Amino acid sequence: MTAIADPRSPRVTVRRKGPNLEKWGWIYMRVSGVLLVVLIFGHLFVNLMVGEGIHGIDFAFVAGKYATPFWQWWDVLMLWLALIHGANGMRTIVNDYVTHDRTRRVLVWALWLAAAFLIVLGTLVVFTFDPCLGFDASTASDTMISICS
């Protein structure tokens, strides 16, 4: 008597030679998750608790933060880790629930392309941010005048 496999039983796949990408993806999710908790809570603490709190967040606050390489790299690291973490999680969901091989491959490629595009775009925004573009000293705050003068 032969048994029929459960509908949601995993596909039998042949182990390929080379690095085990699933294992490294699993490790990345754990490590990036811990780092993201530290980065996000540090970001929230500085933005919401230090200084004037939420009332102090305006264009000048962001310009002041992005004037220092430390905060640029903090936010870029948070961006990179979060986007890769999210794309890897979505890849896992697609692999679990999409049964057609070609559809799964297209969706996974689309996920990684979207993540790469957002990483490039976000990195460009952080490192090329110019608060003095279109600066008008007559309407600017004291912080903006000190940054742009």
UniProtKB/TrEMBL annotation:
InterPro entries registered for this protein in UniProt: SQR/QFR_C/D, SuccDH_FuR_B_TM-su
Keyword Ubl conjugation included in the entry's annotation: no
Pfam families per the UniProt record, alphabetical: Sdh_cyt (PF01127)
Location within or outside the cell: Membrane
Protein name per the record: Succinate dehydrogenase, hydrophobic membrane anchor protein
Keywords, in A-Z order: Heme, Iron, Membrane, Metal-binding, Transmembrane, Transmembrane helix
Predominant location: membrane
Superkingdom assignment: Bacteria
Coiled-coil region list: none
Listed transmembrane segments: 25-50, 70-94, 106-129
